[in-house]
Write a structure and sequence with these properties.
Elements: E1 3-8, H1 16-28, E2 33-38, H2 48-61, E3 68-78, H3 81-94, E4 99-103, H4 111-116, E5 119-122, H5 130-148
Parallel strand pairs: 1-2, 1-4, 3-4, 3-5
Helix pairs in contact: 1-5, 3-5
């Protein structure tokens, strides 16, 4: 079993990359973790629906039919850190399938991504850049794993 974070676009903010990398290493102490970047669709004169659809195709190319797929979207279910750790632990214990969290592009997800997802998770009702959400997600994933493993990080 592996946990993956699939993101649309590169992390171009130089101050974020080392922070994301640090949490990536920390997460790998607990579970096999991978971050997969998909290139943005950069089509001049394309509307948002066309971009969503093309990004959706690229996302699904990276997801196996057996994978558990969770998308991050402000319309999703919100968790506190303890409940999120229970969510992760439940999926780790009750399935041998990979867990994939997906952060979409600037225009969100196409309908085929919504229909394929096992669940929609919201980190906040507020809007953040996709690059900042990457940092938030890896921190929360690390926090969840430390809670599951009774590591003191959560209470520092």
């Amino acid at each position: 079993m592996k946990i993956k974070l699939l993101v649309v676009g590169k992390t171009s903010e130089s101050f974020l990359a080392p922070l994301i990398s640090d949490y990536h290493k920390r997460i790998n102490r607990f579970v096999n973790f991978e971050i997969i970047e998909i290139n943005n669709i950069n089509i001049k004169k394309a509307n948002s629906l066309e971009i969503q659809k093309k990004e959706g195709i690229k996302i699904l190319e990276k997801v196996d039919k057996k994978d558990q797929m969770f998308i991050l979207d402000e319309k999703g279910k919100s968790y506190n850190s303890i409940d999120f750790s229970k969510f992760i632990e439940n999926r780790m214990v009750n399935s041998s399938k990979n867990i994939i969290f997906i952060i979409g592009g600037a225009y969100g997800f196409s309908e085929n991504i919504y229909s394929r997802s096992n669940s929609i998770i919201s980190l906040s009702k507020m809007t953040f850049s996709h690059q900042i959400i990457r940092l938030f997600m890896v921190e929360q994933l690390y926090r969840a794993l430390t809670i599951i493993n009774n590591h003191p990080y959560h209470n520092k």
